[in-house]
Amino acid sequence: MKISVITFLLVIFPSFLLAQTTISGTVMDNKGVPVFGANVYLEGTYDGSTSDESGKFSFETSETGTQTLTISYVSFEPTKIIDDVSTMKHLKITLREDVNSLETVTISAGSFSAGDNSKISVLKPLDIVTTASALGDFVGALQTLPGTTTVAEDGRLFVRGGDAGETQIFIDGIRVFTPYSPTANNVPTRGRFSPFLFDGITFSTGGYSAEYGQALSSVLLLNTIDEPSQEKTDIAIMSVGGGLGHTEKWEKSSLSVNASYINLGPYIAILPDRNDWQKPFETASGEAVFRQKIGDGLLKIYGAFDTSDFELTQEDINQPEGTRFKLNNQNFYTNASYSEMLNKGWTIFGGGSYTYGKTKVGIDEANIKDTENSAHLKLKLKKRFSNRFKLNFGVEQFLTDFNEDYDDPNVDAKLGFNNNISAAFTEADIIFSRKLALKLGVRGEYSELFKEFTVSPRISFAYKTGKSSQLSLAYGDFFQQPDSEVLKFTNNLEAQHTQHYIMNYQYSANNRIFRAEVYRKQYTNLVTYNDEFPDINTTFKNNGDGFAQGLDLFWRDNETLKNIDYWVSYSYLDTQRKYKNYPFEATPSFANTHNLSVVAKYWINDWKSQIGFSYQYGSGRTYTDLNEPGFLQKKTKGYNSLSLNWAYLISQQKILYASINNVFAFKNVNGYQYAKTPDINGNFARRELLPAADQFFFVGFFWTISDDGKDNQLDNL
């Protein structure tokens, strides 16, 4: 009977008994260390096992033919083996580290990230507007970072020996052609855009991506909020004006609007400055962001408009009655962008911007009217081939139409130019391991105005030296056309050129971050001319050159001292250049050798208050003393300013805010103006170029009405 049953089973279930196959092997990491606890299984079955302390595994399966064996373990990339199960014996499997881990190296040379979504942020969105010396201007906050130079009378970003025109600003990846409000000499400007609508900022002091061009020194990338957290209304009543903002949310869309009005008339009536104002500065502005989800994509439309007007008389050593200056400006900027993740690892981005700017300037008897129409169009594709290789490429077009009417008793001229630039770029991110990454790119640009094609290679490299530290290197070529003050007179030029060499060390752990960076910039093809103030008879050439080199240090710590967050920035700059009307290479008047910033913020629970402190120092800047031989041979005294602010929470959504810039009223000198002719003794008289005011006081009340009853505007102060 037993023999009959066994015979029956052998006949009925031969495949079952003969198909039992043993799958075995050893799992190790890339250093040959056994991996304990790795999951090993055949896809689509319940057959599998885990590796033991020696990395070994073994299990049986009844599957036959070609199957997929998957091996996975936390912090490693899953590995798949597709083969006949009969060959899956004594396998030697090496797992690769998962490069999506937060511990993976990042390219950091030349770039500062500020945003909650970045892997390593040196600043948060809150910091952009709570810095005491910034007065709510994101540019003012960035001037506390290393690599920037203190040029108090200007207000724009001067980066690593470059003048302000060498830095370009982008919103959602699209160029902003007129990022600053126009102003008078010796009166600092401000960025046009409020920080209310941005949640991420990347400030690159050099070596930036091949995606961006037409900037010799730096790019500043501003990203608008993708999705607001809730509906809310913000109300601001300030000593210099007022503001109103509102955000409305729907199921798949949202709209944020912000409007403000500033009038310095009442302030100047109480606290007069050194200028004789006929009409104090007045501006009205508004901006909005509309967001719409379309399937897996996101459409964002941003728009901003502002108008400003003022008139004053400024002291002038050559005109006893002073120089009359009046300005009226209207500026409109809009951009639209659409991004979507497609199938098979593809992402598409398309966008464009349009800028209209109209400025009327009156200087004594001269009247100047500038009109600019500019546009930027961009299409970009990104392919994610794997966690270790991503390719980014695209094309873009810049268009500028600039016209100027110049009218005074001696000259009546119409100037202008049309400038079209076509560009293409490609860039690859290659992550070899958690410790080693490479970014390699190239950018090509064709100028229709100059009939010139330029090629800009870019490369960045990063190596992780420890769990919390890394070393980065970067090199790049950068081209930029001259600005409108040159192109309106001539187009017989070439693009200006720099080469960047950067080495960066970064440590980040336990709410502390330290950065040290050395760099060298080499300038060629800078524009020179033979007159102090160019005109239609000026001779322009591309025979200027120069260099900038230095050391930048940054330390931030919000862990060591309870309720205190602080950062310290220091920059050393050595630079000389021959450009404009310089007779030879010299240190330009906007560059100082040493810059130091110390920023601290202290939260006091018992007072329901945040107190801010900001100190800035800049060593003396060069000027030409006409009473001694030489050019830019003297230096002013150093710049000093200590600022304080105080935000008091009256209630969760009501804030009283006050700030004082330059608390100790340091007498800072921006430079000197000399008389055009000497006196009877052969000496040129001079006067100090002083700020319009040594101090600035600000008081405001800010009220937020939100869905949750908890949100407030501390983020924006």
Automatic annotation (TrEMBL):
Q: Does the keyword Transmembrane apply?
A: yes
- Cellular localisation: Cell outer membrane
PANTHER family, per database record: HEMOGLOBIN AND HEMOGLOBIN-HAPTOGLOBIN-BINDING PROTEIN 1-RELATED, TONB-DEPENDENT OUTER MEMBRANE RECEPTOR
Q: Gene3D superfamilies from the xrefs? A: Carboxypeptidase-like, regulatory domain, TonB-dependent receptor, beta-barrel domain, TonB-dependent receptor, plug domain
Name of the protein described by the UniProt record? TonB-dependent receptor
Instruction: Indicate the secretion signal residues.
Output: 1-19
- Organism field: Aequorivita iocasae
Protein family per UniProt: Belongs to the TonB-dependent receptor family.
Q: Which PROSITE patterns match?
A: TONB_DEPENDENT_REC_3
Q: Which residue range or ranges hold the TonB-dependent receptor plug domain? A: 135-214
TonB-dependent receptor-like beta-barrel domain sequence ranges? 319-663
Q: What is its main location?
A: membrane
